[in-house]
Amino acid sequence: MVGGWAEAAGAGGALVVAAVAGRNWVSLRRRSRLLAVARDVTARYARLLTVKRQQLVIHDGYGNYQLQPWIDHIDYFIENVVLREARDRGLDTRGMGRGTPTRSRLIRTLLATLREGDDAVGSAPIRDADIISGEHYETLCRNLLQAQGWQVETTPVTGDQGADLIADAEGCRVVIQCKFYSKPVGNKAVQEAHAAVGFHAGDRAAVVSNASFTRSAKQLAAANGVLLLHHDQLADLGQLLRRA
């Protein structure tokens, strides 16, 4: 009789272990499929996500980065894009709230996928076809300057008084206007950049563009000491200022 009870208990224990193992397998499979969806969706929207990251991670000019807007956007993207796609594929997305282990894995997967895209792009030059707006162009110019060690402040969208970026390095403060144009940049941009130097207590003014500059813009810039630059020249801004 005792042996029978022991055999029954052993069989029951085996069933419990099998049930737990089965649930764990289902859970792992679900998580694996969710992470695969996260990789697919992130890769699909990598370009736009990279733009959002560049726009939302703000440098305050004092060596600090404001990350919370980007963190909030990641949560928004997971909730409204990744998990929506997962549900469309028939996956169970319950238990994916903020702070849960699977949510944390989704965030890590998203960031890792973006890093892979960054590594693939490397230091490729800016192409006009990759720029989606004037604001995006300003962000790309800011990133180019920061890569060269400049401390860069982005001015407010309204009330910038002719300046888009203010760059500081080695005691020199440069007030910059960025122009993403499909035609040559004219006098107005030069006038605004020159006026902005006084308002922002700058040392020099510059207009940066993907386009060329009109003859009159070049003459006005030369008369007022305003640098006219293509964005590729931002990598050498320090040298250009010393020569000017």
UniProtKB/TrEMBL annotation:
SUPFAM superfamilies: Restriction endonuclease-like (SSF52980). The chain crosses the membrane at residues 6-26. The keyword Isomerase does not apply. The keyword Transmembrane applies. GO terms for molecular function: DNA binding; restriction endodeoxyribonuclease activity. Keywords: Endonuclease, Hydrolase, Membrane, Nuclease, Transmembrane, Transmembrane helix. PANTHER family: MRR RESTRICTION SYSTEM PROTEIN, SLL1429 PROTEIN. Residues 132-237 form the Restriction endonuclease type IV Mrr domain. Gene3D superfamilies: 3.40.1350.10. GO terms for biological process: DNA restriction-modification system. This is Restriction endonuclease. Coiled coil: none annotated. It comes from the Bacteria. It holds the Pfam family Mrr_cat.
